Amino acid sequence: MDITVTELQTTTYCNSIAIRVGPSPSTVQSKSGAPMRTITVPRSALAVLTALLLGCADQPTVTVDEPTTPEPTGPHAAVYATLTADQNDALIGASSPVADSVELHETTVENGVASMAELDEIPLPEGESVILQPGGLHLMLLEPEPLQQGDRLAITLEFAEADAMEVEVPVVATADMPDHHDDH
Q1: In Å, what is the CA distance from 59 to each residue of 29, 51, 121, 161?
Q2: Homologous superfamily of the 62-176 domain (CATH)
Q3: What pLDDT sits at residue 171?
Q4: Which InterPro entries does UniProt cross-reference here (predicted)?
Q5: Start-to-end Cα distance in the chain
Q6: Secondary structure of the chain in the HEC alphabet?
């Protein structure tokens, strides 16, 4: 008997395969009804595939809620969101095809003077929501392409443990920002 491996997603190696044991594959469809690509591998590969899947059980994940960027008024743009990790992790970098670079920043106020500093990482404690917001932690797009309300930009977030993920971020008017976000 062979093992049929069905590709479900292509986002990360841990979310991309499922194992179904049986004879030749029948037509496999996704929830949307679209056919999915299948391959059949020898039974001897079961141990390797099982080890890969068991290793994925401990793979940390990070959820990103309410990503937004206010319409920029200068040469930079801030990105805000809420990040929650299911295990201790850290945001260690970001990139976007619409900006020269993306930096992790924190705004602090000392003696009534606000200053902004680049960070090497933003810790994501297990189960806690870390809010990227004005006056605190945020992402800074340096020299982005012109952005205006209604645009959507792609940002890739890189983590110390979890797989990198691409997030679509809407550009909104400051007045349309979620409650915990204000203009940068």
Answers
A1: 26, 13, 19, 8
A2: PCu(A)C copper chaperone (2.60.40.1890)
A3: 96
A4: LpqE-like, Lxx211020-like, PCuAC_sf
A5: 60
A6: CCEEEEECCCCCHHHCEEEEECCCCCCCECCCCCECCEEEECHHHHHHHHHHHHHHCCCCCEEEEEEEEECCCCCEEEEEEEEEECCCEEEEEEECCCCCEEEEEEEEEECCEEEEEEECCEEECECCEEEECCCCEEEEEECCCCCCCCCEEEEEEEECCCCCEEEEEEEECHHHCCCCCCCC
Tokens of 69: 């960027």
Q: Where are the domains of the chain?
A: 3-56, 62-176
Tell if the pTM clears 0.85, that is, is over it: no
Non-local CB neighbours of 39 within 8 Å, separated by 6+ positions: 4, 5, 7
CB 147 within 8 A of CB 137: no
